Amino acid sequence: xxNVQQILQTAIAASHTGGAILRRYFEEGVIMRDKSQxxxxxxxxxxxxxxxxxxxxxxxxxxxYPTHELLGxxxxxxxxxxxxxxxxxxxLDGTNNFAHRIEHFAxxxxxxxxxxxxxxxxxxxxxxxxxxxxxxxxxxxxGKQVHVSDADTLGRSxxxxxxxxxxxxxxxxxxxxxxxxxxHHIHGIRxxxxxxxxxxxxxxxxxxxxxxxxxxxxDFAAGSLFVTEAGGKITDARGxxxxxxxxxxxATNGHLHNALTEITRRHHP
Length: 269
Ligand code: IPD
Ligand code: CA
Ligand code: CA
Fold this sequence. Notes:
Blueprint: H1 3-28, E1 33-34, E2 45-46, H2 48-64, E3 69-72, E4 85-93, H3 95-99, E5 106-113, E6 116-124, E7 129-134, E8 138-141, E9 144-146, E10 158-162, H4 169-183, E11 188-190, H5 195-203, E12 209-215, H6 217-229, E13 233-235, E14 247-252, H7 257-266
Parallel strand pairs: 3-4, 10-11, 10-12
Antiparallel strand pairs: 1-2, 4-5, 5-6, 6-7, 7-8, 8-9, 12-14, 13-14
Helix pairs in contact: 1-2, 4-7, 5-6
Bound molecules: D-MYO-inositol-1-phosphate (IPD) and calcium ion (2 copies).
């Protein structure tokens, strides 16, 4: 087994460990707390489930790779993104779905070697649905290789999108881009609420494209590799390279990349 394959096995084990914690809290119920700073409006949520999932994932990775760096959404935000061996973790992606008892959420774990995504695992613990990718070795759903779709016009496409927690200029830009997509006769727009799984849907050929004007690295670290290993393309909303940091994101099957980034560039907030 190559080193990266071993790393993928650790990512899978960690996603199962975090996922088991999420599943237990999802079944038993948990109190959601507000972490948004927007005048007390409660839509950016966190809970013991996110925090315990992240802690358990971190312990498992640190036991296996004590010298590696960890970056994660809850207590791991200080992780050094310039590290040669970097794990990027969203212990619960789709918190709002989780809070509303919608079974569409995931653990997302990406591993970056020398600044490049090298392995990733995304796991929906309710559906026991596992998405994995290793650089140069393809993208897999529950062990079966997947590929992006071959639709080559917006008129044959289903487009996913996401709204950042901002309810101002960014939301207006997103709505304008959606309207623009419809004017190109797309089949439809979907907003599923879990960016990592949205990216998996692009890789699995269910969505032809996906865009969001602001995502954090833990939202797309694993999913970006999944998209490219499935034959797709991922950039920021202007068509530039994705940083290991907060960024706009556009992912497509490749054929539609110019067409979709033309739209997202036009409305960029
Ligand atoms: C969110 C989800 C959502 C996306 C938001 C993310 P969280 O992550 O991925 O789909 O639209 O921008 O912040 O907060 O549920 O981990
Ligand atoms: Ca997230
Ligand atoms: Ca999260």
